[in-house]
Amino acid sequence: MATTQEVLDLYSKYVIGNYRRLPLVAVRGQGAHIWDADGKRYIDLFAGWAVTGVGHCHPRLVEAIARQAATLMYMPNTWHTEPQARLAEWIAATGFGGKTFFCNSGAEASEAAIKLARIHASAAGKGRYKLITFENGFHGRTFAAITATAQPKYQEGFRPLVPGFMYAPLNDLAEVERLVDEETCAIMVEPIQGEGGVNVAQPEFLKGLRDLCDHRGMLLVFDEVQTGVGRCGTWWGYQVSGVVPDIMTAAKQLGGGTAIGAMCAGPAVADRLVPGTHASTFGGNPLAAAAGCAVFEIIRDENLLENARQMGDYLRRRMLELKQETPVISEVRGAGLMVGVELAQNGADLVNWCLERGLYVNCTHDTVLRLMPPLNITRDVLDEALAILAEGVRAMRPAGK
Ligand SMILES: Cc1ncc(COP(=O)(O)O)c(C=O)c1O
Fold this sequence. Notes:
CATH superfamily of the largest domain: Type I PLP-dependent aspartate aminotransferase-like (Major domain)
CATH class of the largest domain: Alpha Beta
Helix content: 40-55%
Bound molecules: pyridoxal-5'-phosphate
Low-confidence stretches: none
Structural class: alpha/beta
Number of strands: 17
């Protein structure tokens, strides 16, 4: 096996440096643990942006992938395959019904949703094409997705962007109402903004968006790429508020670590995508789809929605207790196992401090610790992680002191 340095050297020579990477090489994962090339073990409180939601290398997931790989790995979408059909059934059964288009990533799911919203409006002869999205949102890195992503840092250097996007502050219904005009076809929002800092869209705000869409004949799109498939302690993030979208997207946790994305809509909208309008070579391939089915089965059979709610409540409670002790924590928020801890200062040093002690956490938007352990994390492992994290937070000096 190559040493850490050998792998880092290969990277610096051959891999484009578009990521800020840790100087670590991951070689193995099991449940909530990762091991690096030097044999050091880390507790994973991030689950790879919520991708490894059932933990690393869950035996049932591994078995499902191995079985499918040995049976039929790929077929073009000119054929039908059972895993794709079953996964679409899972999405409908756990969500609001509807039909699903499969792709390979969150950004592609956003693209599909944007295209569907526009073709739906176009087919209805309404001449509408504009979408409203939200400040600090994140929808991916393709062109329409970075345009939908109302954060200048993701757009710089890539202009001109895709026309027809307007941005509003999250939870500001009056501003959304002001932006809507006769050309607006859809509103797209994350039920909880992930990259933007674990910002919760308030239920009454989502309800307001639903009513507005209904009154003005627009579609409501929920980006569930980070919130979906159990992350919030419900199958889908929208189920926390009970506000049902017309279109929802998914990716990350859906494949348990294999690359898959999805976009689901009720038939009246979904059926606008007829042959020739949209496609993906790898979308819904049997391998990733079999993995997706296994993820749903594991969450159901191991009661992981309940575990996510219980462990999430416990995690937030422990963080709130810590907040009583130190002004370094200013707010704790989120749902299920999507937990944001707002720090009064930059969290980069804390992340490194934890990493040195074998705990992997993420800090997004500079100041928000984003804690998203696997849905099957146990209380013991969480306690071990929290002991390290609490020590790190206590050791932080409040900014300016
Ligand atoms: C809410 C949301 N939408 C879309 C994306 C893009 O997903 P991907 O990186 O798989 O393209 C992300 C990724 O972080 C996301 O969090």
